[in-house]
Design brief:
Blueprint (H helix, E strand, L loop, with lengths): L7 E4 L1 H18 L6 E7 L3 H10 L4 E10 L10 E5 L9 E9 L3 H11 L5 E9 L12 E5 L5 E2 L15 E3 L4
Parallel strand pairs: 2-3, 2-5, 5-6, 6-7
Antiparallel strand pairs: 1-9, 3-4, 8-9
Helix pairs in contact: 1-2
The chain binds 1-O-pyrophosphono-5-O-phosphono-alpha-D-ribofuranose.
1-O-pyrophosphono-5-O-phosphono-alpha-D-ribofuranose binds next to strand 2, strand 5 and helix 3.
Length: 177
């Protein structure tokens, strides 16, 4: 892809906006009984989705972040994912919503659900903007999915290609895909 070429549009801004609204309504309804929901963003990819989703919710909420690292090329191996930044708050007894930009193999999510579940939250649900069904190798429970997408390299709205295109306002596909 040349320096100035923009990725072609897979999901445009308006479609994302409408779907984030729908997800927020569904999450609000499912947490109507909850005193406070802890939104946990997985850095870096989730930061834009989380920013938009968190502002459309009405349930009382707070935001925290964690970050993981994956050993390159070993996404499908047990132990490939490790925590490089932990939450600041103790989630024991709290209702938690894990927010991801994309579920690809499911290895990150499997790891996070295991380590966060061990902290005994009152509830632990997961929301992802994107999911590549064809690539899943780990059985994971995903409660809210924005879009199921084909197995192409997607960028924008938080997702990068070697750190490029994260701040594109739409979900695009890099040329050659
Ligand atoms: C992406 C994405 C998920 C993970 C999904 O993160 O944000 O966390 O990969 O892949 P998996 O289902 O195969 O585990 P990435 O490693 O690109 O880091 P980033 O979010 O910092 O860009």
């Amino acid at each position: 892809m040349t320096k100035d070429a923009l990725p072609r549009v897979l999901i445009d801004e308006e479609t994302i906006r409408k779907r984030v609204d729908e997800l927020a309504r569904q999450i609000d309804a499912d947490h109507a009984h909850v005193d406070e929901l802890v939104l946990v963003g997985v850095l870096k990819g989730s930061f834009i989705f989380l920013a938009d989703l968190s502002r459309r919710l009405t349930v009382p909420r707070r935001v925290d972040f964690l970050a993981v690292s994956t050993y390159p090329g070993e996404e499908r191996m047990p132990g490939a994912v490790r925590l490089v930044l932990d939450l600041r708050i103790d989630i024991s007894g709290r209702h938690v919503l894990l927010v991801e930009d994309i579920v690809d193999t499911g290895s990150t999510l499997a790891y996070l659900q295991r380590i966060l579940g061990a902290r005994e939250p009152a509830g632990l649900r997961t929301c992802t903007l994107l999911r590549k069904r064809a690539r899943i190798t780990h059985e994971v429970q995903v409660d809210y999915v924005g879009f199921d997408i084909p197995d192409v390299w997607v960028v924008g709205y938080g997702l990068d290609w070697a750190e490029r295109y994260r701040t594109l306002p739409y979900i695009g596909v890099v040329d050659g895909e």
